[in-house]
Amino acid sequence: MKIRQIRLYRHELTVLDGRYDMSISHVETLDSTVVAVETDSGLVGFGETCPLGPAYQPQHAGGARAALSELAPVLLGSDPTRIGLVNDTMDQALLGHSYAKAALDVACWDITGKHRNERICDLLGGVRNDPVPSYYGILPTDPDDAAAQAIALQDQGFERLQIKTGKAGVDVDIAVTKAVAAVTKPNVKLLADANRGWTQRDAILFSEACADIPLALEQPCNTMAENAALRGRVRHPVFLDESADSIAAVSEAIEQGIAQGFGMKVSRVGGISAMATIIALCSARSIPLTCDDTWGGDITAATTVHLGATVPSRLFEGTWIAEPYTETSYACRSEPVTNANGRMAIPAGPGLGVEPDLDSWPDPVAVFG
Ligand code: 0XW
Ligand code: MG
């Protein structure tokens, strides 16, 4: 089988309530790029890359499309079912830019699944979590409001709550976290995610003040080195998110004891192939992880749900999908991927199991082949 044509589509996704805030950055609309990889057998595979705005991590939508325009021509004629070789070809053509490569890697997994009539989660070794649990991020600034949101989310069925910190000041972060902890059920996990926004001082003060609350600190500080410097100075486990940007970074963070868990983003590390390696690495070292992406529509959601389904249950921290936070979705022929009561069903069809309704989409922004 050979890749005959690659098309790039652009889709704008709008945030519910108009705005999604994190410590340093925020988004209102998301500029998503969907790739359709068509083969000489007629099979078409899909992949998506949707940076969380230009300031969440070193990714932006225009950059994704520019990199894809370098990568797509060199993949024409490749066998999409030989995904390791596809990744070699992409790496020889362009250094880095994993978030663009991810969309093509995922599209090749989609084609392979369709070709073999298997779901991606089954190709990856089989389902360990079904339905796939999710988690919810809140950015409260008022303790009473924080507690009310936490109660409502637990009542809905969420078993993991991520408190976004690092925006309003560490005193507010501490007050809000204490209020959430006071209403958190014993089976519910808590995280404080500063999205790179804390200084080391903030992280240390927060951890001291919340020492009796069982939680993890997610990406407290900006760089790997800053987070590494927290070792022995904070009372909580540290999870890396933004700094865990490659298989090598994850391996280094485990080896050096910098991270005790990861909030993983599929597009950041280059797609399903890289994520499967990271899941295996974390399994071998008993390290918990999530399988998320930065944002995206049904294709991204299906990708992360398939991966999340395969993580050993004792290490699985959930899959975050953008659907509960997104006003607009793109038209799909298949069932949309939705978060119902903190859980997602695994799409049933072969490959990703989601089919965008291309006839109703605007024309592609670029066509190769
Ligand atoms: C909560 N998320 C998974 C959604 C946004 O992409 C940011 C992110 C995170 O954990 O940083
Ligand atoms: Mg995070």
Q: Which structural class best describes the helix and strand composition? A: alpha/beta
Strand content: 15-25%
Radius of gyration: 20 Å
Which homologous superfamily in CATH is the superfamily of the largest domain?
Enolase-like C-terminal domain
Mean pLDDT: 97
Helix and strand pattern: EEEEEHHHHEEHEHEHEHEHEHHEHEE
Per CATH, which architecture of the largest domain? Alpha-Beta Barrel
Q: Tell me the helix content.
A: 25-40%
Number of helices: 12
N- and C-termini, Cα separation: 15 Å
Inertia-based shape: globular
Q: How many independent structural domains?
A: 2
Biggest pleated-sheet summary: 7 strands, parallel
CATH class wording of the largest domain: Alpha Beta
Low-confidence stretches: none
Cofactors and ligands = (2S,4R)-4-hydroxy-1,1-dimethylpyrrolidinium-2-carboxylate, magnesium ion
Number of strands: 15
Explain what you see.
The protein has 369 residues and is α/β, with parallel strands linked by helices. The chain folds into 2 domains: 125 residues, Enolase-like, N-terminal domain (Enolase-like, domain 1, 2-Layer Sandwich); 223 residues, TIM Barrel, CATH 3.20.20. It is built from 12 helices and 15 strands. The protein has a 7-stranded parallel β-sheet with strand order 7-8-9-10-11-12-13. The chain is globular and about 60 Å long. The mean pLDDT is 97. Bound molecules: (2S,4R)-4-hydroxy-1,1-dimethylpyrrolidinium-2-carboxylate (0XW) and magnesium ion (MG). The site of magnesium ion has 6 residues, from loops.
